[in-house]
Structure formats: C-alpha cells, structure tokens
Design goal:
Layout: H1 2-19, H2 28-41, E1 45-51, E2 55-62, E3 68-70, H3 75-79, E4 86-88, H4 101-104, E5 111-118, E6 124-132, H5 140-176, H6 181-194, E7 206-213, E8 223-231, E9 234-242, H7 246-264, H8 270-284, E10 292-300, E11 307-313, E12 319-321, E13 327-329, E14 348-351, E15 357-361, H9 363-366, E16 369-370, E17 373-374, H10 378-385, H11 392-405, E18 414-421
Antiparallel strand pairs: 1-2, 1-6, 2-3, 4-5, 5-6, 7-18, 8-9, 9-10, 10-11, 11-14, 12-13, 12-15, 15-18, 16-17
Helix pairs in contact: 2-5, 5-6, 5-7, 7-8, 10-11
Length: 422
C-alpha cells in the first residue's frame, strides 16, 4: 500500500512538472476564475493552488496576498488525496483542520471548500478552493458549481500547454518544411486538430456535424469552433476566425477558446460572453492586428421551447433554415473582438421548431474564388433549401462537394458547424 501511494505521488508530481505551471507569472485567465468564484460564493478569498513536493504554490490568489505555503500541514495537500470536493463547514470543530496554523493562528480560517484540479489521467494537480473566516453550510449544488469552475481551470491549463506546444512545434515545422514538406503538413494538421474539439458531443434532440478545412495544410490557421456544455439543456456554440496564421494565431485561438469557455458558465448572455472575450484579448496583446471575429450562441434544448440566442463580434451571422421553408441570417452584427475597448454586442433570440437547422460558418467559405468571382452564399442557400430532411453531416458534405464542383480556390481556412433540431 505504501509503495502504491508513493508511486501515485511520483506520477502526480510528474504531471505537475509536465504542465510547466509552477512559478509562472500572473495570468488574467486564472485571476478571472478566482474572482468569479469569490463573487459566486460570496467569500473573501479564492485560490487556484498547485501542490508541489514541499509547498503549495498559488497560481492565482484573490483576496490573499500570499504566493505559497508549506505543504505540511496544508488543507490543499489533504484535498488532493480525495476525489470529491473537500469541505470544512466549521474548522473550529472539524478534527481534520484543528491543527492547521491557518485555523489555530491569527488568520482565523473557519470555512474551506476545495475542488480538485483533476487531469484526464486522474492526477490531482492542486485545487480551486474558497475560504471564509466565518463558518457556513455548503450545499451539494454549490459543490457541483465549484467542480465546474475547477474543470474550467483544468481546461485553461490544457489549452495553455497546447498553445505552448503549438508554438514549439510550429518552430520545428518551419525548420524542416523545406526538406520534409509532407511531414510538415502532417505536423501542422496535428497542431490544428489540437485547437479544435477532439470529438463532437452528443446533444440529446440535436443532430450536429462540423468541418475544418485549412487553406494551407503546412500552416496552422486561426479558424476554430467549439461546443461547450453549460448546464442541463444549455450548450454554447462558438465559431471564430483569428487574424493571422502560424504560432501567434494558434496561441490567440487557444486564448479565445478557453476565455469563451470560462465566461459561458457564468454569463447567460452571449453578448456578455463576447464582451468578456473582447476585454481578455485587449489585455493579452497590444497589437491592434491581433483581433478576431467570433459568433457565440447559446442553444437551449428544452423540449417545450428549443431556441438559439446569438451574438456576433464581426463574424458572419448564422443561417437559420426553417423546416417549413425559408433561409434567413439571424443576429445583429457587432464589432470585431480585441480591437476596441468597450465594444458592445447584442443578443438575438431565435425560437426553433422540430426540423429547423442552423449553419455557422467562417468567411473562408464565401470568399473562396471561382474564377473572377467569389463562391458566395447562393450555392449554400440552394443546398439548404433542397435539404430539409437530411442529416447535418450530409449538409456539410454537400457544401464541400459544391466547392469542388465549382472549382473554388480556397484562399482562407473554412470552418462549418451545422445543427438540426430533431
């Protein structure tokens, strides 16, 4: 048993090292999550902690001017040994916490709740914890919300390491591309795949399909899409286009994705999600050229009232095709994200009926060249009008076939996402 515990701890510490997070500078993404946690639970202190060999290091510490503590004795060090949220409602009467210096000393900790930062391999890197100097009861629903926020922290860590690996691998691609073009293309495709969802989720009552087609298979592009579980019967749908190509665009894409994911669990309004994204992009870079266009929508699969609420930051508006006929663009155009402060965005609510479908796309589709003309929307509209009873995957395949049939020269990456209410 001892050997097993020692082996598990060695594997966990190896995972901590692999994420390369210890002693990194402050990061607005994690600071926003701890600020959000403090606001949601109405506590003065929220921390993203990483448990190292002999210390507990704080990646973000809202309401506490301390960067690290000794590991032993430490509440976070105890919490990572569990799988469920670790909750101390009143530390003064809880034997697990009586000896802790934060409880027995001048600090006066009375309440502590932590959700583990669990990787996909099952290693607990640390915790997202909240602290109060007053005792309180923590409900099962609150514990679930804390776990959801911890999952967002892990998503941010995963995307951070993916972006970093992208930059490293992009550099490698550039070094070998003249000699091994085929290998470079394969590498770039692998990098691009890492910036997209690994698989399409199953959404009850919704038929869903997506496509990503790069203009240059040897260069990582900035188009992306994402499907985000928000709550029961609520899903976030994001599609966007980062200005530029290569490593910088890839890192910017990762930032956009995890910012949208973090914001979507707190804000019910897509317009407010885009406003948070705009602020995050402006804070991340001083380069005015590093903007992006994004369309974000919240899909409700409530059987009594299925709907889409749509907001756009300079992105093409989605096409809504009614089962009874007719195709319309829905939404209100907005300013690109990451270019101007205080940009405002507008929500548009669209009720859906059985058989209705929506098509989200990037401008690489409409701006493909057919001779001296653009491919445009008309071929897409024809496909939608003639395809009322087919699956979303077939819609995607027909659009791709139309591009080939027209001899369209793709000048930019293309991302498509089609859904239908069943």
């Amino acid at each position: 048993m001892v050997d097993t515990l020692v082996e598990r701890e060695a594997q966990r510490l190896a995972a901590v090292e692999r994420y390369e997070i210890l002693d990194t500078p402050p990061d607005g993404t994690f600071d926003r999550i701890t600020t959000l946690a403090a606001r949601i639970f109405k506590v003065p202190i929220a921390i993203v902690s990483i448990v190292d060999h002999d210390r507990i290091w704080f990646k973000s510490h809202h309401g506490l001017d301390v960067k690290q503590l000794d590991r032993d004795p430490g509440l976070c060090a105890s919490a990572i040994m569990q799988t469920d949220p670790w909750i101390i409602n009143d530390a003064k009467i809880d034997p697990r916490a009586l000896a802790n210096p934060l409880v027995a000393g001048e600090f006066g900790l009375r309440f502590y709740a932590a959700a583990q930062l669990a990787t996909s391999e099952g290693h607990n890197l640390g915790t997202l914890c909240i602290i109060d100097k007053e005792p309180r009861q923590f409900t099962a629903d609150e514990a679930k919300t804390l776990q959801d926020l911890a999952s967002i922290v892990v998503d941010a860590l995963e995307l951070r390491i993916a972006a970093r690996n992208t930059v490293r691998m992009e550099r490698t691609v550039r070094e070998v591309i003249t000699e091994e073009k085929d290998n470079a293309e394969a590498l770039a495709q692998a990098l691009q795949t890492s910036l997209l969802p690994p698989h399409m989720p199953h959404i009850p009552g919704v038929d869903l399909a997506a496509l990503y087609s790069p203009a240059d298979r040897a260069v990582v592009g900035g188009d992306f899409y994402d499907i985000i579980p928000i709550a029961d019967e609520l899903w976030g749908i994001a599609i966007g286009d980062i200005c530029g190509k290569g490593a910088k665009a890839a890192a910017r894409t990762a930032l956009a994705r995890y910012t949208i994911r973090a914001a979507a669990i707190q804000e019910a309004s897509p317009a407010k999600v885009l406003a948070l994204l705009n602020a995050a992009l402006l804070k991340d870079s001083e380069e005015s050229s590093q903007f992006c266009t994004v369309c974000f929508a919240v899909l409700s699969t409530d059987p009594k009232d299925p709907s889409l609420t749509i907001a756009s930051a300079g992105h093409p508006l989605p096409l809504i095709f009614g089962a009874r006929g007719g195709v319309k663009r829905r939404g209100t155009p907005g300013v690109v994200a990451g270019a101007f402060e205080d940009s405002a965005y507008t929500d548009t609510h669209v009720s859906l009926r059985r058989g209705d479908r929506a098509l989200f796309y990037t401008d690489g589709l409409t701006e493909a060249r057919v001779g001296e003309k653009l491919f445009g929307l008309e071929p897409v509209l024809k496909i939608l009008r003639r395809s009322s009873n087919i699956e979303s995957q077939q819609i995607i395949e027909r659009i791709r076939a139309a591009l080939i049939a027209e001899g369209a020269a793709q000048r930019d990456d293309i991302a498509l996402l089609s859904l239908r209410v069943n």
